[in-house]
Amino acid sequence: MSPNDCAVCALSPILFFTCNFINFSQFSCPHSKYPSTEHLRINKNKLVVPLTECLLLVFAIYNNLQHFSSYQHKERLITLNETVMLVFVLFLLLFLTTSSRESVLHFNGLISIKNNRYYYGTAAILGTKTVKKYFKTYLLCAFYNAGLQVIFFLVSFASLGTNTIEWILKVLSCEICISIPIIVVFKFIALLKLYKNFLRANNDSLIKLLTKKEKCFSYRIKLLRRMYHCVMVNFNVMGLYLNLTLLVLGLTLVVLLVSCFYILIVIYGRDYGLDFYEGAFVVISVLQFIGGLFVCVTVAELEKMSEDILSFLFKYPISKLTAAEAAQVEVLITTLTIQKPVLRASDIFTVGTRLLASISGTVVTYVLVALQFHASWAN
Fold first, then answer.
1. pTM surpassing 0.70?
2. Which of the ends of the chain has fewer CB neighbours closer than 10 A, N or C?
3. What is the pLDDT of residues 187-204, one digit of tens each?
4. Where are the annotated coiled coils located (predicted)?
């Protein structure tokens, strides 16, 4: 087994970069140096970390509101923007902390799908190039975060006042305010890319079955259908703890983008000076908005891939029918959609008081199985 075959090694950038309050325990693999368990678990002791971060953010919000009336027009705009960001990160931490159980279930599901890829009929989900991309993105985010932290600390150190404790608390809260959105955006992008790889592997395996005409075709289709179902169910679990976060993220980034442009117009229109901190805040807000747009585009691509695969799995058996049977299937589905059917003991379909034309048992079987599959997937 190579590191690329190991689910923990492949997912480690996502696991270790986002474990600020959840203990992602080590897994049993030949690359691990420590004994481990087979499942992720929540470490309640680490809940002290997000709670402390929340207290620091509350202090920073209170401090900004307390000094708001003493600031000039430009400083008020910057302080208002900073307060919006602090409130957003505070809610973000609270959402992620309260949904830690769903997060652990979701990552356990990812590990299970990755480890059971051979059972689902596909051998490659995360290749070498994909794993390298994850590590490169992880390193880029880490260096970007570290650079912002150092720059902001140096700028804040230059403005050190007489109250050292208050200055330290404010710096720590702003450091948290910078780090958390970067971590969340990275987590969104990495997870969505991972699901795209899952769906792409499923689609590639379906195409391979069609072109090479392998043995046990129906059995392999069944396994791939099961994989698709597991991926989408796990994706819905992710939605339980990320959908609300994504909504708050989007609304906050839009507010920040609009307010940042307004600040720039006011500053240049009234010939104010723009210091480094204010300029950096505007740039960071714009970059976060671009990251939010990228997340929305990736979600749209993922939904399209899911619809394409579902359409294939739902419609494919129709290609096994004759032209006449396929036409009957389309007519029957359309008719059943319009009006509720009644199946009588004489094996005759009636819709209302009208008698349908003669329908073969193959067509009826296909329609019933297809509708059953569609209902189970929807649940």
1. no
2. C
3. 777 777 778 877 877 777
4. none
